[in-house]
Amino acid sequence: MGCCIRDLKDKEVVNVCDGRRLGYITDVEIDVCDGRLVAIVVPGDCKGGIFSKGEDVTIPWRDIKKIGDDIILVDVGEHFCVCAEEKPDKKRRFFG
């Protein structure tokens, strides 16, 4: 089965640990030497208000459990909530 990056961006990412919707893929990371996708990036969760932007969160490929027609199931544990105000020195948080 093949899948384009634009197809991945249309799928919602859900954490299997708690059923939380993490959002849609905003970016991917590719190992250009090996030519393989190594991680997906989703927006971070921030409760700072409507205009607050959380940190982007990088989810390694090994944490992706299933890619379905509409949903990508990942296992990132229950420690997903990251807020930009808490860690202003980081652009992305990496789980793994």
Summarize the topology.
Elements (H helix, E strand, L loop, with lengths): L4 H4 L3 E4 L5 E4 L2 E5 L4 E8 L12 E5 L3 E4 L3 E4 L17 E3 L2
Parallel strand pairs: 1-7, 5-8
Antiparallel strand pairs: 1-2, 3-4, 4-5, 6-7
Structure report:
There is one protein chain. This protein has 96 residues and is mostly beta strands. The protein has a single domain (5-94), classed as PRC-barrel domain (SH3 type barrels). It has one helix and eight strands. The protein has a four-stranded mixed beta sheet, with no helix packed on it. The chain has a four-stranded mixed beta sheet with strand order 3-4-5-8, with no helix packed on it. Strand 1 and strand 2 (21-24) form a beta hairpin. The radius of gyration is 13 Å and the shape is globular. Residues 82-90 have low confidence and may be disordered.
Summed up:
This protein is 4% helix and 39% strand.
Domains, number: 1
Helix content: under 10%
Mean pLDDT: 79
| CATH topology type | SH3 type barrels
CATH homology group: PRC-barrel domain
The general outline is globular
Distance between the termini: 26 Å
Query: What structural class is derived from the secondary structure elements?
Result: mainly beta
Rg over C-alpha atoms, rounded to the nearest angstrom: 13 Å
Based on the coordinates given, report the CATH architecture: Roll
- Profile the largest sheet: 4 strands, mixed
Trace the largest sheet across and list its strands: 2-1-7-6
CATH class: Mainly Beta
